[in-house]
Design a protein that fits this description.
Length: 414
Amino acid sequence: MSQQHMPDETARQFTAQADDDDIRLERWFKRHLPQVSFAMVSRWARTGQLRVDGKRVDPADRVFKGQTLRVPPGGDEARGGTAPKRRQLSPEEEAQAEAMLIRRSKSALVLNKPPGLATQGGTKTIEHVDGLLDALQFEQEGRPKLVHRLDKDTSGALLLARTSRAAAHFTKAFSSRTARKVYWALVVGVPSINDGMIELPLAKQPGTGGEKMHVNEKEGLPARTRYRVIERAGNAACWMELQPFTGRTHQLRVHLAAIGHPIVGDGKYGGRDSFLTGAISRKMHLHARRLKIPHPDGGSVEFTAELPDHFADSMEQIGFDIAVGEALTDDTPPPPPPNGEQKQKSKPPAKTNRKDLKGAERLYREALQQNPDNPVILNNLAWVLLEQGKPGAVMCSYNRINGANGCDNDYLLN
């Protein structure tokens, strides 16, 4: 956004930049002049004071690169002052953020998130990736944006969008499953089938406050995970490649525990059976190794994140060769639905499911009015929104309720 300063008490003029191409005018205000309320924007448009290239406009009209916006003076007081400033990062925090960076381009940043660091904040979570993003702004006007998440104890590749256009593109790629995620895990025991698909529906486990998931054949949401055994250490443990074809909470962890082979160090789902003896670390051994995703400008890009120290040490202790895992190809498309289900047979259940999801969304939103800081309600709402193809609203909900620097309005997609 470039601004031309006009004389006092006259209209301001802005030029729409490439990142603002083909967005609604109301979203342009949310992005660049968030202190101006929607009611004020509507009033300016209704009275003809707000103009684009000299023409009257409506808040829902589209803005395109190179157009000139004429914005009346005032409106800054409409929302009761300016937004609170973010906390200044310490030199140690800035160094921590820069140490995670493994790839940087005009549209994206890729981090290698360490285990033990949450992606976003919460009621009891003070240290998190989102809180460090100001250190990764570099030459951009705005801070980078989270477009997906990793569990706190999961390490590996985490993608950030550097522009609003890239954020919308990447978020859509994750929600439509065109992003390909490959995880490595050390697992207790060895499955009888070396290359298989786990298809077990998952739901919140009652009585856990929403903190755990479990397999629920009746009420769970569909979840699919492909696994391949890369190497094995007798019958005691094996090294697996995992590819989630759905994005349920804790999906990989619950699926592996459900088939009797919990991830090493995952006491939450594997209990005492998830820990190996000897010098093997008790930390969880689940790592987002590779991420392949369509690029906003066409084609696709792929990123690889090196193993954290505890995982690499365990691999060496057991005698696994990383080169063996690197030699595997991962370009196999997701297998067809089980039992050769036909599209026409799946349509009626899909309609019913959408209706149920809308009802659930309404109930969760009403519950949030009474309990705005309840992470259980938030998490349930987020996944209901995701199932309806509203990934931007999911990230916005997480930001708003978890207090992670407020709700980024750029995530409120069309």
